[in-house]
Design a protein that fits this description.
eight-stranded mixed sheet; alpha+beta; 14 strands
Length: 264
């Protein structure tokens, strides 16, 4: 599957969601799973993605946040999908949510070896895509990533990790801390050089949330890693969670957080 094909799908689904954003029932909860919910708009987005991807003529094994695993007979590709990353933002009118799709060959088992994929910002319609060599912003190859002058950390942690984060931040000076609500877009911000670091250490982040953004970063030489500073990996056959995901333009920050996670 080619990058331009998946990019068109990301744009089409984002347009569909923009048209739906003021509907009165988009926040309606239709199912629950573990500690999350499925809203009506999540399911509609997912079904539209399945429809558009099947219209390409390829066959897929879909791994998606709402449906779980859905397999076409004789599938050629695996597609890891988050129909709306940042759905709380979306239904609340906060302009920071996206459609996220990563496409893999049928026999691939490495999260960071996607063939192509896209993250489309639903509100701005900016697209962040990649092929097997390069990352693109709105179809332009990304080059010359630099660290921001001031430290901006995009952080997600639960109450039981407060002491860990406190230990980590005690080693960092002059930083700003934010939680924006869409992991894929947050990771892209770091890999564009707009933020310094992203981390989620709640043990709740799923492969569907970050498959596409992880590959976008990987093409730029920035590998998302775990607390051992090893590249992240996960199942490509089902929805699965990762204990921690860390993306950083500053290796010192990665080392500080790694040490804090091991210590506390």
């Amino acid at each position: 599957m080619k990058r331009d094909e998946i990019t068109k799908i990301g744009i089409e689904v984002a347009k569909f969601l923009r048209e739906k954003k003021d509907s009165s029932d988009i926040a309606k909860v239709i199912a629950t799973h573990e500690d999350d919910v499925t809203r009506k708009i999540d399911k509609e987005s997912e079904e539209y993605i399945f429809e558009l991807m099947r219209k390409t003529g390829y066959k897929f094994k879909f791994i998606s946040e709402e449906a779980g695993t859905v397999e076409d007979s004789g599938y050629e590709y695996k597609a890891i999908i988050d129909p709306i990353d940042g759905s709380t933002n979306f239904v609340s009118g906060i302009p920071w949510s996206s459609v996220s799709i990563a496409v893999y060959r049928s026999d691939e088992n490495n999260l960071l070896q996607s063939v192509t994929g896209v993250i489309t910002n639903i509100f701005t319609m900016d697209t962040f895509s990649y092929d097997e060599k390069y990352s693109y912003i709105n179809d332009k190859v990304v080059q010359n990533i630099r660290k921001p002058e001031k430290i901006l950390i995009l952080a997600y942690f639960s109450r039981n990790k407060f002491e860990t984060v406190k230990e980590f931040l005690s080693q960092v000076r002059d930083y700003k801390l934010r939680s924006l609500g869409s992991a894929s877009l947050d990771m892209v911000l770091v890999c564009m050089g707009k933020a310094t670091m992203f981390f989620d250490i709640r043990g709740k982040l799923r492969n569907v949330d970050i498959a596409a953004s992880s590959n976008f970063c990987n093409r730029l030489g920035i590998n998302p890693h775990d607390k051992k500073l090893e590249s992240i990996n996960s199942s490509l056959d089902k929805v699965s969670t990762l204990s921690e995901v860390i993306v950083s333009l500053d290796q010192n920050l990665s080392s500080y957080l790694s040490s804090a996670l091991k210590k506390v």
